[in-house]
Prior knowledge:
Layout: E1 11-15, E2 21-25, E3 28-29, H1 36-45, H2 48-53, E4 56-60, H3 66-79, E5 84-88, H4 92-101, E6 110-113, H5 117-121, H6 124-130, E7 135-138, H7 140-145, H8 147-155, H9 162-168, H10 172-178, H11 187-195, H12 204-214
Parallel strand pairs: 4-5, 4-7, 5-6
Antiparallel strand pairs: 1-2, 2-3
Helix pairs in contact: 1-3, 11-12
Amino acid sequence: MQEKPLDIAHYEILTSKTLHKIPVVNHVQLHSLEDPLLEAKKFIHHFEKQIQEKRNYFVLGLGFGHHLQQLALRAQFYHQDQWEMVVVEPNQRTIADFHLYRPVDLGKKFDILTGPVQDLYSNEKFVRFLSTSPVLLSHPQSIQVYEQYFKDLFSFRANDSIEEIRESIKDPHFKIYLQQFHGDYHLIDCLKEVSNKKSENKFDYLLLTANFLSS
């Protein structure tokens, strides 16, 4: 799948009436210029039950993290330190400014991922996280700006050939694991072998995830 480059024609940082820094991308304010904290609280309130029931959260869009801060507060309330958040943000400039201005303090309980979609799915930690069926929270303004990127993220289909999969994997241990399968194999062949094994290898689940992505 050929990804289209991000179309960023306009980027600036404004200050809200509550004196919070707000990124504006392609003339879309990623948070409210009136009261970004109140806006974030209302947004997260819609996910209250899901936040209570699950401990892993997959967020589309970083912005300047006001929605992430409110999510972290609710997750901490329900689960103390036993929760995890992964954020996908397409715009590396926004990530850099987020670290520069430090508009919110989220501690070390979250990861920010960026870059080509195929690279994300080659990240073992990301795939492992998705396998936990996390709560999905789509930041509306980020979706508006980066609609195509997030469409590519969810329409991605992994290669079916085990040789092609092996070439795309960066983790050396997973590469070694895949060497047990013949180069001409496809996922269905590998899955048959895995299902007949008496003991389960820790990487077997990754084949199941790859099968899901290629189906």
